[in-house]
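Folded chain entry —
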Amino acid sequence: MKELKKISYVEDEPDIQRIAKICLEKFGGYQVSIFSNATEAMEGIEDSDPDLILLDIMLPGMDGKELFGKLKELDSIKNTPIVFITAKSNYVRDPTELVELGASGVLEKPFDPVTLTQSIEKFWRDHVEGN
């Protein structure tokens, strides 16, 4: 059973980046790599060797759905769980469409910084360790 140690988060909002990184590192003890857009993610995510990828839907340039498809084409990433973190909006009317796309899960924004780590750990137990 693989242990969750390293998380990569693709998020364009600096405040959300900081909050998520602080929470996941402080409360979860995870090593967190942040990427601000799809280009950064495509250039650096393989080197970060994540156990889990958190992916925002609304990104500048290439959106999260398109980036998801490109990440799944990378041999080193194709089996890495990817969880979308997205705000409820007209852009994603139904989170199940993201799971049908192949995402491992969906978390909603705004997330509670205090419970973010718990949500990630619950996802990991339910969907990764259970398999």
